[in-house]
TrEMBL record, chain A:
Superkingdom field: Eukaryota
Name the UniProt record assigns to this protein: serine C-palmitoyltransferase
Sequence ranges assigned to domain Aminotransferase class I/classII large in this UniProt record: 278-526, 584-682
One cellular component (GO) term of this entry: serine palmitoyltransferase complex
Organism name: Kwoniella dejecticola CBS 10117
InterPro entries: Aminotrans_II_pyridoxalP_BS (IPR001917), Aminotransferase_I/II_large (IPR004839), AON_synthase_class-II (IPR050087), PyrdxlP-dep_Trfase (IPR015424), PyrdxlP-dep_Trfase_major (IPR015421), PyrdxlP-dep_Trfase_small (IPR015422)
TrEMBL record, chain B:
PANTHER family for the chain: CLASS II AMINOTRANSFERASE/8-AMINO-7-OXONONANOATE SYNTHASE (PTHR13693), SERINE PALMITOYLTRANSFERASE 1 (PTHR13693:SF2)
Cofactor or coenzyme needed: pyridoxal 5'-phosphate
Protein known as: serine C-palmitoyltransferase
Any one GO CC term of the record: endoplasmic reticulum
Keyword Chaperone carried by entry: no
Residue ranges occupied by any Aminotransferase class I/classII large domain in the UniProt entry: 151-433
UniProt-recorded Gene Ontology molecular function terms: pyridoxal phosphate binding; serine C-palmitoyltransferase activity
Metabolic or biological pathway: Lipid metabolism; sphingolipid metabolism; Sphingolipid metabolism
Membership in a protein family: Belongs to the class-II pyridoxal-phosphate-dependent aminotransferase family.
GO-annotated biological processes: ceramide biosynthetic process; sphingosine biosynthetic process
Keywords for this protein: Acyltransferase, Lipid metabolism, Pyridoxal phosphate, Sphingolipid metabolism, Transferase
Gene3D superfamilies, per database record: Aspartate Aminotransferase, domain 1, Type I PLP-dependent aspartate aminotransferase-like (Major domain)
Pfam families, A to Z: Aminotran_1_2
Amino acid sequence: MPRSTRKSTSGASTPPSSLSSSPPSRPLFPAISLRSSSPSSSQSMGMGKETPNSNVLSARTSLLNVLTRPHHSSPSTTIVSSENNSSDEDTIYSDQSTISGSSYASSIINGSIADKQHLSSEDIARVYENYLEKPFVYTKSTIKHSEFGHCNNPNWRWTSQWNPDEPIHPEEEPHPPYFTLLTTYISYILLIVIGHMRDFFGKRFRPAEYAHLMPQNGYAALNSDFDSFYTRRLKQRLEDCFARPVTGVAGRTIVCYDRSSTDENKTFTLTGTTTRALNVSSYNYLGFASSTGGCADAVEACIKKYGVSGAGPRHDASTLDLHVQTENLVARFVGQESAMVVSMGYATNSTTIPALVGKGCLVISDEFNHASIRFGVRLSGASLRSFKHNDVNDLERILRDVISQGQPRTHRPWKKILLIVEGLYSMEGSLVNLPVLIELKKKYKFYLYVDEAHSIGAMGPNGRGVCDYFGVDPREVDLLMGTFTKSFGAAGGYIAGSKAIMDRLRLRSHATCYAESISPVLLTQIISSMGSIMGVAPPLATPAEDDKSDTLSIVSRPQAYGPAPSHILPSWMKLPLNLLNGTEGRERLRRLAFNSRYLASGLRKLGFIVYGHRDSPIIPLLIYNPGKMPWFSQLMLDRLGPDKTPVVVVVVAYPATPLITSRVRFCLSASHTKNDIDLILRACDEVGDLLGMKYGKQTMNVEEVISSAEELVASSKFD
Amino acid sequence: MSAVHSHPSSMVATAQPASTEIPAPLIPLLSSLTALIYTIENLFNRIPGSPIIVRYIKSSYQDDPWRSVLELFLLAFAIRTVLKGRTRGEGEGKSFIKLTEKEIDELVDEFSPLPLADEPTPADSLTLETVPTIYGPNGIKVKTSPNGKTLLNLATPNWCGFVENDKMKEVAIETLKHYGVGTCGPSGFYGTIDIHQKAEADIASFLGTEASIIYSQAFALVSSAIPAFAKRGDIIVADRGVNFGIHKGLQISRSNIKWYAHGDMKDLERVLQNVERDRKRKGGKLTKKFIVAEGIFENDGMILDLPKVIELKKKYKYRLILDECQSFGMMGAHGRGITEHFGVPASEVDMILGSMANGLSTGGGFCAGSQVVCQHQRINSSASVFSASLPAMLATCASQAIDILKSQPQLITSLQANIQVFRTQLAKLEPFISTTSASSSGSAENSLMPPPNGVPNKEALISIPSHANSGLIHIFLLNPPDNLEDEEIILQQIVDEVQNTSNVLITRSRRLRSQEIFEPEPSLKISISGYMSKKDVEAAGKGLRNAIIKVCGSEY
């Protein structure tokens, strides 16, 4: 049966056995009852009990393939993986033994979930009672459960890697029913008409409230009422969904201050209470946002040694040894020759693009590129063309056009053409079609700049971003940019490329010359988290020729993505073993991949319209009607369902998205457990039914989805 | 239109010939035509509101047939416009040349772009090679090589010694245990932590403004806060000497920018009058008008004559955007900046932009002003909306640093004393030896320019335009060589000399040559800290003086 086959791939060889009767191969392994949930699911799905369904089998085989592929692609990594597995098991046991002591763990492990195919609402309520508050389990990793959930079932893992059988983009975007489109447009028209009426009468009857929109004592209005119309009349109605004050770590859970408004969301007053909610809003992809654990200890040591300040600009004696070490590590992490760090992610784009291109150069940009890219291009003075989101045909058309026509009017050829795309789009959850772009790049000789703000750390079997995910040699891309805010739990950004380009950037970038350097505290967080994703090689094991060779190819990829040589890391930094050997990092990558794929597939099965790639940790769920946005946000927080566990979500609307496609955006994290994802699915199901948001065709009910999680993840079908 | 001729009541399924004069072979054709017309009409009548359209067309045709023709033409035009597509792209412009696919392929093959990185010039290499790397913690005593000698750091802004403040380290560790490091989100999406709100309130109450908003980088703050308010068509009057970040903000704003001569209040007034005259002549809508200037100018350390600017701004109805990235934490009795230095209430200034990285030695920046000003930026300022919020510990440390500044004015006193000591050492090389150097430091009148009423100094080598109270001191060569590169080389020699002989780390100002709007002259950049001992500062000043004499004396 599948379970045992999969078990054998993860290192321990157990003979195949049937599930219900099989005693756990290791009797002291309590998680076994959790695992049996998957086969029982296949029964509940109406598949044959005795005859293994061929679909499931093929799915399993593909799962097997994917799981093992990165491990066997090169002999050097096989060794690493086998080491990983052994220590994996160790951590599992220790975690288990601690976890089973808590009432939370026993309530889940001892069975109610596993035994029954469908949970009654009482069961759910019981299991999820004080779900977020109670289990403050301290394990060997010494990270609080509320910041990073423990999830030991090795089946709930996945490897984020491109499967050429799966399309990078769906054949066609899912469409909502015309009724929804119509009501959405009508809603906006109504809102605009009512808003203008309120403005019209308000200005005449209550001028005091409109003072800042009208000229006063000879001063023009600070905000024109036309520019601020959207903010005042549309966004203000949803104001409660945004900028909710929080406290503590934005980890697996987050503590929100409760607030209320008595003046139509103009001001909020805190009620004095707080709510701990499940957090699917923060960009904490690998769960490194935490106040405890190995990284936090390293940061504490850093504060004692270095203080917190980055002080002045990099060129004015504020370049620390830590900056150089971080840059070397980042370059190695992304597989480039050299890298540069900047104290703010936004500024990484806005201050380096002007250093790369100028007048007479052309920037071709995806229409959904981030504001910082647009800001940078505007500063640079280069011409700008944008192409339809992820549409390579449109891109090629534009390329042929601009190269053949040259600069406008003069027809002189462009000095440089720079294509700027994002690896993973933060509002769409869609991936860039990197393999095709590389092809186009060879033909049309443009330079490629990939903004990996969201994909770095979150995509790829080694967490090295989209190049890793697609198996593309990172040096095929001229510039790889990314941020440390997301996966690494720090702040700031980097840009990496060849040494010649980086040297130019160090001279020409606005940031190195005039902006403050990045704080040593953040650098420590970056080094420790990045180092633990890579693993740190013991000094002797570093291949001697590795330092000299700059030529890379796809064949040598595993080497390029190898561990961090220990001499790059600061000597005072002491990391715990599970971070040093990379097991923790690998676990986190695989948990994130599972969570992402599970939720994205699950929501589609429930009949929601979901954008983006299935491996993307950003999952946008379409709402359309603007009136449903505050309701969705509110109902996720004040849950109606039996588990009563609050969830905080991000709702996004125009101008961040096109006008009609308002959406809620889930950002998953390795810190979420499968139970957390189940909870989100149940919550979405209940709110979706209530608000009529299942615009697509529902093919499974929520309990079916939950019980067939592993099949959904392993299946290579998009829907 | 068919509806005009037939009446709905006569609608039948089969057609009846209207006249017997029609030749027989045509009858089946006509009957099927009529049937078709009826069907269409039937369908048309089912559309809600169709009788209104019919009535409209009928009456309009009867009243004025030409109008119907015109309307038909307009309809055709509208359909054509819709079908044409929204973007007026390639293929439309005058200079577009239609090429065959083969020609395009050839052009694509021929296309050879410039390399992404151009060859570095010798000056570039010099700049890059001379960036010092500090081994170990930054502070007033640093090492620039792992086992090198300890240098006195006059290169890093550290006005009150907060870089090494132990209390702030404690606060940082405390914060780490509650909040972790990063916030993992922009302030709009669960990235607004309670300590951010506290830091904002602390800054606002420290300065005496209604509110403030925190950004995660001071440079991005300056270049993003200005375009959040100033839009196309607005008027910005700016000092020619403003820093690079402001230049970028002005560039993004696309406003109408007028420059006035650096530090020249008469010229400012002239520009304001010109704008006023223009506006009166042209008439038109009242637009937003801003004056943009710096408290202590980053490019030369000069001070803004704030009382005069406030007077002019009120007279001509401008809003003042004041960049205090250098002066915050350095000027005034408690480090509140030049508003405190001049005794002007901060609320008189519409927007104060400050740097927490320079002034408080943490990170990020803030904009202080009225509630409306700050609230507007939370939604409309690009760098605030689209960027992750400031890491928690940088915000708590900023709050802590403000507490220290409030309660320990001696930090600023000590800073001012050190500046005095340092400037006295260099005064012997300046063009005018002020006769009343000790007493003139506080007054605003003669501080904008080098004191004109001193004794001319024949042995002068340098000029220091920086204000006597400014911790940021720029030293310009008095008789520079003709080209900038040579001047940079001389300055670098001074930097190396003072490092080798006196163990003092200073830097020359690094510029983005060819990206600046007004190329600033090369200069040496000194940052004095109040945390240094008087003896060290005096020795450093002496060392620098000797180095300048040694390098420049041999040149001339």
